[in-house]
Write a structure and sequence with these properties.
Elements: E1 5-6, E2 18-19, E3 23-24, H1 33-46, H2 54-67, E4 71-75, H3 78-88, E5 94-97, H4 104-110, E6 115-118, H5 130-133, E7 141-147, H6 156-165, E8 169-173, E9 181-182, E10 185-186, E11 193-197, E12 210-214, H7 217-226, H8 248-258, H9 261-279, E13 285-287, E14 301-305, H10 307-310, H11 314-322, E15 326-327, H12 342-345, H13 349-352, H14 354-360, E16 363-366, H15 374-389
Parallel strand pairs: 3-15, 5-6, 5-7, 7-8, 8-11
Antiparallel strand pairs: 1-2, 4-12, 9-10, 11-12, 13-14, 14-16
Helix pairs in contact: 1-8, 2-8, 3-4, 9-15
Modified residues (N6-(pyridoxal phosphate)lysine): 202
Region (Disordered): 1-25
Biased composition (Polar residues): 1-16
Length: 394
Amino acid sequence: MNPNASFDNMTESSAPPSFKEKLHVGRPNVGNREALLARINDMLDRRWLTNNGPFVQELEQKMSEFLGVRNCIAMCNATIALEITTRALGMSGEVIVPPFTFVATAHALQWQEITPVFCDIDPTTHHIDPKKIESMITPRTTGIVGVHLWGRPCAVNTLTEIAAKHKLKLIFDAAHAFGCSHGGRMIGGFGDAEVFSFHATKFFNTFEGGLVATDNDELAQKIRLMKNFGFEGYDNVIYIGTNGKMTEICAAMGLTNLESLDEFIQTNHTNYYRYRQGLSGLPGVSVIEYNEAERNNYQYVVLEIDEKMAGVSRDRLVEALHAKNVIARRYFYPGCHRMEPYRSYFPHSRLLLPKTERLARRVMLLPTGTAVELEHIDAICVLIKRIINGSILS
C-alpha cells in the first residue's frame, strides 16, 4: 500500500479514509526518467535549445505518423496554437463555440477581436449541440470551433457538413483528445485543423506545449511562418508572426512520454473502471461512459451529481472531499459565458444556455493517472459513499 495513504481496510465500518498527501486531478505523468535525462544531456551537448531543433523535428514526425496526418506543428502551448491557427485561417467577425470548455477556447478568439458566440450543449454528450448551430449563423460568422470534451469526439460529421454548407472554417479543440479516435480514425485529421494541448496536467505532456495537426499543406506552411515571426530563412521575414515555438527540452519530454503512452493509457483505463465499479449503484452519481469501439485515453474520470437523488450538492461533495485531501475539481464551472469579459458583453447569455447552466452545477472530476494507486481509488469511493449517505459532512 502506498505510504502516503492513511486509511483502513476500505470497509464501510472502518474510520473515514483520508490522505496525508493531496491527490490531484491531472498530476503530471512522467515517463522513463533516465531516457529523459539522456535526451537533455544530448541537447546540452549540442547547445541547440530551441528554433526547430532535432527533438522538435523528431516529435513532429512521430506525431504525424501516430495521428495519420500530413502535417504536425509543435507549439509552445495550445492557446497560442489556437490563436495562430485561427489567424492563419483568416477567421474574423464571429465564431461559434461551446461555453462548456476551458476559457482559453474563447480567449484565443477574443484576443484577436473575434467574438465568440456561445452555442448551448447537448446535455448527454456535453458537446456543442449541432442542432442549434445553424440558427446562430449570421453574415459575420466565419467559423466554428468544436471541442472534443473528455476525449470523446464531438459531432465531427455533422459539424463538417454545417461548415461546408455555410462555407465556414472548422477547428477542433482537441486538448483532451490525444490518443483518441472517431470512426476508427485518429482525432487529428478532422476539420481544417485540430489543436492539442500537451500541458503538464494532460495525461501526455511536454512539460508545456501544444500541437496543430492538419492535412492542409498550405495552412501548415502559413502556421509555421506565423509561429516563428514570419521568418523564411535567416533574415527574410515574409509574413506577420509571433513566437509560438516549442523548445527542445519540451520536445525531449514529449518523445520520452510518447514511449510510455500505452502505459499511461492502461493506467487510466484501469483507474476508470475501478471508479466505475466502486461507485456503481450509488444514487445520484453517474460516471460518464466511453465508446469502447474507439480508442480512448481515459484521462478524465467525470461524475455528474444529481443533487435531488444524491441528497448532497456537487459543491458540497467537492468541499467534503477536499477536507480529506482529495482535490476533486469542478469542470468547467461556471462556464465561459459567466467569466469576464463575456459576462459583461453578454449579460443575459445564461438565459440562452440552460443546458450549460445545469451541467456546470453537476460535473466534477476525480484524481487519476500514474500518481494515483488503486487503494486510493477504493478509499475515495468509500469516502464518496459516506458523504452521500450523510455520515461525513466536514
